[in-house]
TrEMBL record:
Topology in membrane: Single-pass membrane protein
Protein name from the UniProt record: Cytochrome c oxidase subunit 6C
Gene Ontology cellular-component annotations: mitochondrial inner membrane; respiratory chain complex IV
Keywords per UniProt: Membrane, Mitochondrion, Mitochondrion inner membrane, Transmembrane, Transmembrane helix
Function field: Component of the cytochrome c oxidase, the last enzyme in the mitochondrial electron transport chain which drives oxidative phosphorylation. The respiratory chain contains 3 multisubunit complexes succinate dehydrogenase (complex II, CII), ubiquinol-cytochrome c oxidoreductase (cytochrome b-c1 complex, complex III, CIII) and cytochrome c oxidase (complex IV, CIV), that cooperate to transfer electrons derived from NADH and succinate to molecular oxygen, creating an electrochemical gradient over the inner membrane that drives transmembrane transport and the ATP synthase.
Sequence similarity: Belongs to the cytochrome c oxidase subunit 6c family.
Pathway: Energy metabolism; oxidative phosphorylation
Subunit: Component of the cytochrome c oxidase (complex IV, CIV), a multisubunit enzyme composed of 14 subunits. The complex is composed of a catalytic core of 3 subunits MT-CO1, MT-CO2 and MT-CO3, encoded in the mitochondrial DNA, and 11 supernumerary subunits COX4I, COX5A, COX5B, COX6A, COX6B, COX6C, COX7A, COX7B, COX7C, COX8 and NDUFA4, which are encoded in the nuclear genome.
Gene3D superfamilies, sorted: Mitochondrial cytochrome c oxidase subunit VIc/VIIs
Compartments reported by the entry: Mitochondrion inner membrane
Name of a matching Pfam family: COX6C
InterPro entries to which the protein is assigned, alphabetical: Cytochrome_c_oxidase_VIc, Cytochrome_c_oxidase_VIc/VIIs, Cytochrome_c_oxidase_VIc_sf
Signal peptide region: none
């Protein structure tokens, strides 16, 4: 029974480290990278002036009334 806490703590700290690195990797490659690619694809062909004119024509903006 000697050093039972130290032995178990070493095992659990190592296990917790492995699990946390695994979760971080899953989030990075499962969520963050696809999100970055989606944003890059969206802004590749995005025209802010065209979007502004569409919102202006729809009457969404109070500071820029429709023509």
């Amino acid at each position: 029974m000697r050093r039972l806490l130290a032995r178990r703590m070493k095992f659990h700290l190592f296990g917790a480290f492995i699990v946390s690195v695994g979760c971080a990797a899953l989030y990075k490659f499962g969520v963050a990278e696809p999100r970055k690619r989606a944003y890059a694809e969206f802004y590749k062909n995005y025209d802010p002036m065209k979007d502004f004119e569409a919102m202006r024509a729809a009457g969404v903006l109070e500071s820029a009334p429709p023509k």
